[in-house]
Amino acid sequence: TVQPMIHAGADKVIVVDSIDSKAFCDETVAATLGKLIENHKPEIVLAGATARGRSFFPRVAAALECGLIGSCAEVDVDESGSLRAKRPGFGGNFIATVECPDSRPQMATIRPKVLTAAKGDASRTGDVVCESGVETDSRKEILSVTSSDSDTVQIADADFIVTGGRGVKGPEGFELLKKLAKALDGAVGASRAAVDAGWIPYDHQVGQTGQTVRPRVYIACGVSGQIQHLVGMRSSDFIIAVNKDREAPIMEIADIAIVGDLFDVVPALIAGLA
Ligand code: FAD
After folding, report:
1. Which helix (H) or strand (E) is 95 found in, with range?
2. Residues whose CB falls within 8 Å of the CB of residue 88, separated by 6 or more in sequence, listed in order
3. What are 141-197's pLDDT values in tens digits?
4. Cβ–ligand 1 contact at 244 (below 6 Å)
5. Atom 14 in ligand 1: which residue has the minimum CA distance?
6. What distance in angstroms lies between residue 63's CA and the mean position of ligand 1's atoms?
7. Which has the closest alpha carbon to 163: 211, 234, 223?
8. C-alpha distances in angstroms, 29 versus 35, 57, 58, 134, 138?
9. Residues with Cβ within 8 Å of residue 42, at least 6 apart in sequence
10. Quick check: CB of 224 below 6 Å from ligand 1?
């Protein structure tokens, strides 16, 4: 796992193998990263805005009395070496560019899948150093680790995602979308409206308060395409939208916009794939 990091651009990789990644403990990881930051004094420290990253990274920032730019959708570094991070603000109604001019290191969490993975150069070389972790007295004890039940592929990893919105009209509509997802060996996504209605569990939600996804093909069925949904899927390689309303915002960003009733279009797509 170290070599791909060097091939992707790292000059130095610090390995702390005393940390058990299965029995993940925020306190231990935060204390260890805090010590590494104090020793190595990096200018910028980034982590994924995953469940784990969102949990341990703020502890590090608080301990070091640094700012933290959370859940960024885009990051850049200007000529002076300052991190410029973009994140949605006020319910996704605007995208704010945030900087940390005073505190060091500059710290940010980045939503998974919003950045394209570096191509990698197998001829690159770099240093690998091993350092020890910091022992902490955690008040938590991990008794067991259980994966969430899911009969379909997880949306974060899927190449094909078939997403349903309010237009799907109920849990039965999602059964139809599951058939299309299955035919594509993909996963089923959902808008917040569909999740809030109780038609499908939250771990399928795409968007600002759900997951950010970047599949090869994203098929949005009966989803209007409000900004809070778009921030979670607009980096998909290819977007197909099925909507009765040709003026729906999702149709603007779609590579193929199918104007029609999803209950006619989706069965036709399934039949076409059979
Ligand atoms: P609607 O906007 O009601 O759209 C339904 C669409 O279905 C319409 O375009 C309609 O033309 C079409 N339709 C209806 N019947 C059919 C049919 N038979 N065939 C084809 N098309 C049909 N939303 C998210 O999705 N994800 C988030 O993470 C998220 N986070 C949010 C965070 C905040 C702070 C706030 C304020 C909102 C958030 N939202 C989020 C909600 C978001 O603003 C929208 O309300 C939501 O995305 C709308 O869902 P929808 O497109 O399914 O429903």
Report:
1. strand 94-98
2. 71, 73, 94, 95, 96, 208, 227, 228, 231
3. 778 877 765 555 689 889 999 999 999 999 999 999 999 999 999 999 999 999 999
4. yes
5. 167
6. 39
7. 223
8. 10, 9, 12, 8, 11
9. 105
10. yes
- Contact between 150 and 203 (Cβ < 8 Å): yes
Joined tokens for residue 17: 């193998």
Residues listed for the chain: 274
**Amino acid letter, 162:** V
Shortest-distance Cα residue to atom 44 of ligand 1 = 226
Q: Whose CA is nearest to atom 37 of ligand 1?
A: 228
Reported as a single tens digit per residue, the pLDDT across 112-152 is: 877 888 888 999 999 999 998 888 877 877 788 777 655 55
| Atom in ligand 1 nearest the alpha carbon of residue 169 | 15
Q: Measure CA of the first residue to CA of the last residue in the chain; give whole Å.
A: 39
pLDDT digits 0-9 by tens, 216-241: 999 999 999 999 999 899 989 999 99
Atom number of ligand 1 nearest to Cα 165: 52
